[in-house]
Write a structure and sequence with these properties.
By secondary structure, the protein is mostly helical. Helices cover 69% and strands 6% of the residues. The chain contains 9 helices and 3 strands, in the order H-E-E-E-H-H-H-H-H-H-H-H. The chain has a 3-stranded antiparallel β-sheet with strand order 1-2-3. Helix 4 (109-142) packs antiparallel against helix 9 (284-307). It starts with a helix and ends in a 9-residue tail after the last helix. 25% of the residues are buried.
Amino acid sequence: SSKTKGENKKQKSRTHASDGTTNTNNKKRAIPLSIWESRKGSNFKLQYALDGNKLRLLSPEEARDLSSNKNGAFSFDPLHLGRKKRAFLRQIDNIRDSFFPQKTSVTSDYWDYAKYRFTQRIASSCMTVLATQQMLAAIGLGASRSIPAAAALNWVLKDGLGRLGKLSVATNFGRSFDSDVKRLRFSSSLVYTGAVFIETITPFFPKHFLAIATVANVGKSIGITTGNVVRPPIQKTFALEENLGEIAAKTSAQQVLADNIGLALGVSVMKFQTKFVSLALQRAVPLALFPILASIDLVSIHKQLKSVQLRTVNKE
């Protein structure tokens, strides 16, 4: 009797298993179509499927199962949503495509690099805005003649003399850029940050504006030139589909957005100090904020360079 009971249990389990396979086969026979039915009062849309020779509506559970990928994860189809929500999702996709390359066209280390570079550009832009404000204040404080004439002369002289730094970098360090891109990129950031600090202290020495501003501009020219030169070798390591131009274009778009955010933050700080800070202490506000912004800038650069996996022989 015990044997017969065991055999009956085995037969029942086999019949249940066979029923399960037939049910899954029936589900697999259903071929989802791009035909949808919307009903009043609901944003959810039902999908039609071809089941053998019949056309029928899929239940939400069947649609979910048929939309699953090979790993079992559900692949969300925006056609389930209403027209407004689908339009919103399309806008999100367009914004993403405007600022980022396709995931399959870049290496995995690109995303950490882009994240830290975006943060660094915001801090750098805000820092530069405050430093420029300090320099403009120094021109007015140290002008012995009319302010417009002094401002124009000093600004032109500092820019002209500062380009000498750019020339020296381009002519003397060209062969070192490709072999040591990370170290040169971080060194250029240190030089640029030091130059911005020199610009920040110009209001405290207004009579020596031209000398201080020229030294600062030489440092900024060296930093900017070195950073621009070593960027293409770094971007080249991210390309998987010979899409260096796409990566460079998306990086530029990200930079414009980050720079504008930093610009807005800098202008906000300037308005705040104009309204709520006394005139005697206004020159000290950018100087007090400089260590914070410089730390964010340098730490972000360090992390973005650390995330890059160079795929060529270099001094590392």
